[in-house]
Amino acid sequence: MKNILRNTAWILVIFFLTINTQNTKAQQKPFKFGFKLAPAISWLSPDSKHYEYDGNAFSFAWGFVADITIMEHYYLNTGFNVSYFSGYLKYDHQTTESDESKGTMYRKYNLRYIEIPISFKMKTNELIDKFSFFGLIGINTGINIRSKADETFKGNGSFSYTENKVDIKDETSLFKASLLVGAGTEYEIDESVSIVVGVNFNNGFTNVLKGSNSVYPDIDAKAIPYYFELNLGVIF
């Protein structure tokens, strides 16, 4: 008799959990889709001797976002971005084999990527009327599709020059990857449309440069990208 009661109790618990799960799934869309704009403050952190950070830059991205429901309050967040990344470096450089052509190169890197971020997103219930809050963590991967530079060379002697939109495709890596951490809020306009405002930090962990220094051939060019971005989006 006790076994029958215990088994019956377990069946009832499983039944009510199943009903609750089905109700939860019914209340949430399995998939949400939208688009975003993301202005950013970016910089390059050099990881080689004779290369130096030379300031922050303004970057920008636009793209599409998707929230795939895993369970209540938990989502797989992904999408497709076109990212316009910029950063400044200065480093030792020489234009010819002559010692008189040695000096300092000041370069602004303008790199364009196709990005596919993948992150785990956790969202609260509505804590304030129609407002919920979220956090996310994941990775952001990108493929380089364009590499240009604005550069100014100042020689140790009298020689110097400035040139814009220099093609540096051979001096940049094809792939990049970063740790993605973010937080923000969603405002529900109605059941089908929400406004998203958030801040993401992309902590790069791959070198975006390649090749060696012209003055010191045994030193490889290395720089890691970082940026804070403001995400402004609409999801449906």
What topology does this entry show?
Blueprint: H1 2-27, E1 31-46, E2 51-53, E3 57-71, E4 74-94, E5 102-123, E6 131-155, E7 160-167, E8 175-188, E9 194-204, E10 223-235
Antiparallel strand pairs: 1-3, 1-10, 2-4, 3-4, 4-5, 5-6, 6-7, 6-8, 8-9, 9-10
Shape: elongated
| Percent of residues in helices | 10-25%
CATH class: Mainly Beta
From the alpha carbons, calculate the radius of gyration and give it in angstroms: 25 Å
Question: What is the architecture at the second tier of CATH?
Answer: Beta Barrel
Report on this model:
- The chain has an 8-stranded antiparallel barrel.
- It has one domain: Porin, CATH 2.40.160.20.
- The longest helix is centred in the N-terminal third of the chain and has 26 residues, at 2-27.
- The chain is built from 1 helix and 10 strands, in the order αββββββββββ.
- Residues 1-5 and 7-26 have low confidence and may be disordered.
- It is mainly β and 236 residues long.
- Strand 6 and strand 7 (160-167) form a beta hairpin.
- Helices cover 11% and strands 63% of the residues.
- The N and C termini lie far apart (53 Å).
- It is elongated, with a radius of gyration of 25 Å.
